[in-house]
Write a structure and sequence with these properties.
- There is one protein chain.
- This protein is mainly alpha-helical and about 90 residues long.
- The chain has four helices and three strands.
- The protein has a three-stranded antiparallel beta sheet with strand order 1-3-2.
- The longest helix has 24 residues.
- The chain is elongated and about 70 Å long.
- The termini are far apart.
Length: about 90
C-alpha cells in the first residue's frame, strides 16, 4: 500500500468539514423535541419561561394542553404550531 503525505492544509480542511457536520447534527437534535408529549417542567425549560408564565399561557388559551390526573401534558407538535402562528416578522 503506497504511503500518502498529509499536509497541514489537508488537516485544516478536514477540521472544517468535521465542525460543519457536528454543527448540522446539533441543529437537528435541538430543533425538534424528541417526545410527542411534554410535561410542564420540560416545556418551561424549552421556552425559557417561569411556572407563572406557563400557567398564564394555559389560562388565556395560548397553549393547548391535556390534563390527566394531576399531570399536565403539552403536545409538542401543537406547541410548535402555536410558535409558528405567533411569530412576528418586523418590516424595516
Amino acid at each position: 500500500m503506497p504511503t500518502q503525505i498529509i499536509t497541514t492544509d489537508d488537516l485544516r480542511e478536514f477540521k472544517i468539514e468535521l465542525l460543519d457536520d457536528i454543527k448540522s447534527l446539533l441543529q437537528k437534535t435541538t430543533a425538534v423535541p424528541q417526545k410527542k408529549y411534554l410535561k410542564s417542567n420540560e416545556l418551561m425549560e424549552l421556552l425559557k419561561v417561569s411556572p407563572g408564565t406557563l400557567q398564564t399561557l394555559r389560562i388565556n388559551g395560548t397553549l393547548p394542553y391535556t390534563k390527566i390526573g394531576g399531570i399536565i401534558f403539552y403536545d409538542a407538535e401543537e406547541i410548535e404550531k402555536v410558535m409558528k402562528e405567533n411569530s412576528v416578522h418586523n418590516k424595516f
